Amino acid sequence: MPAFTAPDGTELAYHVMGVGEPLLCIPGGPMRASAYLGDLGGLSGHRRLFVLDLRGTGASGIPADPATYRCERQVTDVEALRAHLGLERVDLLAHSAGGDLALLYAARYPRRVRTLTLVTGRARALGVDFTEEHRREAAALREAEPWFADANDSYERIWAGSGTDADWDAIAPFFYGRWDRAAQEHAATEVEQSNDEAAELYASPDAFDPAAARAVVAAWDARVLLLAGELDSGPLPRVAAAIAELFRAAETVVLPGAGHFPWLDDPRRFAETVTAFLDQAL
């Protein structure tokens, strides 16, 4: 397993797969081991993926200081990986909560990023977040599903503050375009792949300075892709479009029938969409 040393001495692992131009990939969760990304729906057939295991997840080491799990503290890990790979500029892809880390990296090192792809990406770093209302709006799209009634009841208990572990398990179908065997197997790995302690610290409120980050990306000339799932709530497609408006050169693509993990719901269209976007930068 290839690895490098972060500035604070923590050993960090990354996975390499595929062929072509390099693409640095940051997982979400927050703080979920990168294994759940797989080969991003066959994207490895078009790009050489360098997939980072964030500190304290997967094959990466546990840091001596838990405070370094904070999102803004991990920016130096991404920069250390870029330097380790000897890349002058990078194409950067981030999923879900990894979007915040990618955005903070871009804000601190804007000249190091050639393109940024946010896959159902979160943007708390820019002052944009999903809400309970967003969750309800997306959930209403699934009323015809056979699992809807039980899953929605669990959602209600979670929103009321009385949700159990079983309720959290029950809402998993809302995050997938199809609740088939592949989705169920994917969802079943979440707990074992996640670092709960790190997740609690990752998005500490003072980890972000949205006004400062917005000022940087508003003047940034790198190309940005916001890839949203039609059925996803975090972010809703219209929220992804609003995030895109904060950049000078951003586009939004909504994958029909996809949820929060669009490379599982429609791998061919996902890989083709990301590849077409990246090819424009060559």
Q: How would you sum up this structure, described in words?
A:
The chain is α/β, with parallel strands linked by helices and 282 residues long. It has a single domain, classed as Rossmann fold. The chain has twelve helices and eight strands. The protein has helices spanning 75-85, 98-108, 132-139, 148-159, 165-170, 181-188, 190-193, 196-202, 210-218, 237-244, 262-265, 267-279; strands at residues 3-5, 11-17, 22-26, 48-52, 90-95, 113-119, 223-229, 250-255. Strands 1-2-4-3-5-6-7-8 form an eight-stranded mixed beta sheet, sandwiched between helices. Helix 10 links the parallel strand 7 and strand 8 (250-255). Helix 2 (98-108) packs across helix 9 (210-218). The longest helix is centred in the last third of the chain and has 13 residues, at 267-279. The chain is globular. The mean pLDDT is 97.
Provide the descriptors you would attach to this structure in a database record.
282 residues; alpha/beta; Rossmann fold; 8-stranded mixed beta sheet; 36% helix; 16% strand; globular
Number of contiguous helices: 12
What structural category characterises the helix and strand content? alpha/beta
- Which regions have little confidence, pLDDT < 50, spanning 5+ residues? none
The chain-level mean pLDDT equals 97
Order of helices and strands: EEEEHEHEHHHHHHHEHEHH
Task: Describe the structure concisely for a colleague.
The chain has an 8-stranded mixed sheet with strand order 1-2-4-3-5-6-7-8, with helices on both faces. Helix 2 links the parallel strand 5 and strand 6. 45% of the residues are buried.
